[in-house]
């Protein structure tokens, strides 16, 4: 399949998953715990079932990695699914969450789509074909911001659910970047954070403790929008690598330098 064909599958699947999230949003939640503070809801499961059905119909036998149901299938090309990124926000009625689906080939993101159900925003990209935002009937190509100085930057992060021993390192970085930037945010959805970097609403994003489904689509959105996506030390980002730094080319090395001083 071409990157455009994979993108179209990601879009169809993510939009259907987002529709489920939107329909269930105002209903009572059934919440379970995967960890002390790591939630899963009935909406995660319902959305994932819908996303997987679309992928299986459009790409029979394809390799799939999904947050709630695990892996299936074989092949060089795989789909990576987070049916509800921002579950804690969703469970509390905070309207910052999304459904995100990416496609990778030999570990390299080649297509992806992230959908914000409540704002009706569809962020999508195919490798070599650009990143775009569709809102209603309007569509525009995405570019990261031109921000090159931390004093002008609005940056964003998140804190790991499982690796709580890494909190001191993340809090140290949060403190330094808060001091040196225009402001810092913690929105609760890494996939949305990356989409916001791609469209210039945020100037930079960094986080550790992430999984492939958190970043597969967002990684490509930022790259196709002209941004840099790496590990904290500036080395190539890996989907299974656990940490990510995304920023415009002029700002990225300055964030790398600050994160280097906080590594433990």
In short:
By secondary structure, the protein is an alpha+beta fold. It has two domains: 3-141, Fructose-1,6-Bisphosphatase, Chain A, domain 1; 150-260, 3-Layer(aba) Sandwich (D-Maltodextrin-Binding Protein, domain 2). It has seven helices and 15 strands.
CATH architecture of the largest domain: 2-Layer Sandwich
Count of distinct strands: 15
How many domains comprise the coordinates? 2
Give the helix level as a range of percent: 25-40%
Biggest sheet record = 8 strands, mixed
Radius of gyration (CA) equals: 17 Å
The CATH topology of the largest domain comes to Fructose-1,6-Bisphosphatase, Chain A, domain 1
H/E element sequence = HEEHEEEHEEEEEEHEHEHEEH
The assigned structural class equals alpha+beta
Query: What is the typical, i.e. mean, pLDDT?
Result: 92
- Beta percentage is 25-35%
CATH superfamily of the largest domain: Fructose-1,6-Bisphosphatase, subunit A, domain 1
Which term fits the overall shape?
globular
Trace the largest sheet across and list its strands: 4-3-5-6-7-8-9-10
Ordered list of secondary-structure elements with their pairings:
Blueprint lengths: L2 H22 L6 E3 L5 E3 H17 L4 E4 L3 E3 L4 E9 L1 H5 L6 E8 L2 E9 L4 E6 L3 E6 L2 E4 L12 E4 L9 H14 L2 E3 L4 H9 L5 E5 L3 H13 L3 E3 L12 E5 L4 H9 L4
Parallel strand pairs: 3-5, 11-12, 11-13
Antiparallel strand pairs: 1-2, 3-4, 5-6, 6-7, 7-8, 8-9, 9-10, 13-15, 14-15
Helix pairs in contact: 1-2, 5-6
Task: Give a structural overview.
The protein is of the alpha+beta class and 264 residues long. The chain has two domains: 3-141, Fructose-1,6-Bisphosphatase, subunit A, domain 1 (Fructose-1,6-Bisphosphatase, Chain A, domain 1, 2-Layer Sandwich), CATH 3.30.540; 150-260, 3-Layer(aba) Sandwich (D-Maltodextrin-Binding Protein, domain 2), CATH 3.40.190.80. The chain has seven helices and 15 strands. An eight-stranded mixed sheet has the order 4-3-5-6-7-8-9-10. Strands 12-11-13-15-14 form a five-stranded mixed sheet, with helices on both faces. Strand 8 (121-126) and strand 9 (130-135) form a beta hairpin. The longest helix is centred in the N-terminal third of the chain and has 22 residues, at 3-24. The chain is globular, with a radius of gyration of 17 Å. It starts with a helix and ends with a helix. The mean pLDDT is 92.
